Amino acid sequence: MNLSHQKILFVSSEAIPFAKTGGLGDVAGALPYALKKLGADVRVVIPKYKCIPQEYINESKIVAEFPVYLEWRKQFARVHEYNTSIPFYFIENNNNFDRDGLYGYEDDHERFAFFCKAVLDMLPRIGFKPDVIHCNDWQTGPICLLLKERYHEDLYYRSISTLYTIHNIQYQGIFGRETLDILGVSDWCFHSEGVEFYGNVSYMKAGLVYADAINTVSNTYAEEIKTSQYGYGLEGVLQRRSNVLYGIVNGIDYEAFNPETDKSLYIPYSKESLHLKKENKKRLQKDLGLPQKDVPMIGLISRLVDQKGLNLIAEKMHDLMQEDIQFVVLGTGQYQYEEMFKYMQGVFPEKVSANILFNLDLAQKIYASSDLFLMPSLFEPCGLGQLISLRYGTIPVVRKTGGLADTIQSFDEKTCKGNGFVFNNFNADEMLGEIRRALHVYQSREKWNILVKNAMESDYSWEDSAKEYMELYQRI
Ligand code: ADP
Hints:
Pathway: Glycan biosynthesis; glycogen biosynthesis
Organism: Defluviitalea saccharophila
CATH class of the largest domain: Alpha Beta
CATH architecture of the largest domain: 3-Layer(aba) Sandwich
Number of helices: 19
InterPro entries: Glyco_trans_1 (IPR001296), GS/SS (IPR011835), Starch_synth_cat_dom (IPR013534)
Strand content: 15-25%
Bound molecules: adenosine-5'-diphosphate
Keywords: Glycogen biosynthesis, Glycosyltransferase, Transferase
EC number: 2.4.1.21
Strand order of the largest sheet: 3-4-5-2-1-6-7-11-12
């Protein structure tokens, strides 16, 4: 089977290094390069947000300008092409995308309806006809619907297939019925086997129903979302489509996330020079105003939201403070969790550092300096934090769910096998028990060193997963 030369358009609402709010940004900035290495002609398209650094825009060229029709309104799209070893397209429309944030606006349904239509309309204009359009999350779901219900009338589009990837089923893009008019599809799609979702239109469901194949970012999550506990109301659709539902675990970019070359670190290190990892810890302690001593440092880099198990942490924060540890938090999110960490830092300034911000540079310093990385998620489609931690020899403590279950094997103190600490139930006592077990193993230098080595030797680079994507493209 010749898998190369496939033409793939990767459509995302974010991609590093241009715009990122979470894991999708990492995936969209890394997987396409791994596909390219396998021979695919892959291109990526995202909106042209205000946050995209101007240097990238300066180095882009404008490759298309055209009108996009939303209902009776005519809006203009301008497409910028930025070339790395693969082309990235930024779709410009200032009214929609020249804003401080990426999502969370009242008119998100219009903004992403515009984006989806513009993506399809640009194809003949830029001279690129993909075999597969690879859509990601709710922002791109309407592409699958539009292709099947509108653009199929045009011969040009008829041979294009779609893959729809679920990165997080909790965020579904649910809007009022009038959204159908904006998308320009008629009422016949508005039924329970179409895009209707409890009287509204669901962009996520548009992807799930109309894509040729669906996947999510780990095998365990692919199973979990077929149940009412994890499916957020879409489990029925996923059960119906289970014959085309796949799980492919995410990787991370092993060149970008490399403790030997990462420019954000104070000092680079490898698994042969772990004493330098400790040096990073000392320097970070100094920068964050923590005492410079060799106690286990627990890192938490996360959106501070219920999904990430923040309520378990809040419940056990006082118990954790009884331990001889330091707890370094980096994240933003729900108000009560941000305030809780600030309060704990006020009460335990020698133990807690609360950094309520989004900062990629500080994130790398924390990944490198911490001994443990806490990720007690309620659900986790794949999770990248634990993979980055492994790469930096920082041991994940995770709940057994989704991608965490697929990537972290609990350390067995007898055989010294495993790369982290895993607890089963979404329960604060279980989490605390597992953290305490980790702190206990930390006291045994010999075992800890084996564990760190196991972690650093775990391979979650993109190579294998990219091959699975190539096979999936071929299949559809
Ligand atoms: P999700 O996509 O659900 O937020 P993931 O674990 O898949 O979770 O990916 C989160 C990504 O965002 C990781 O690369 C993590 O390092 C990064 N990240 C999360 N919060 C912050 C923050 N406050 N500052 C910098 N990076 C962050």
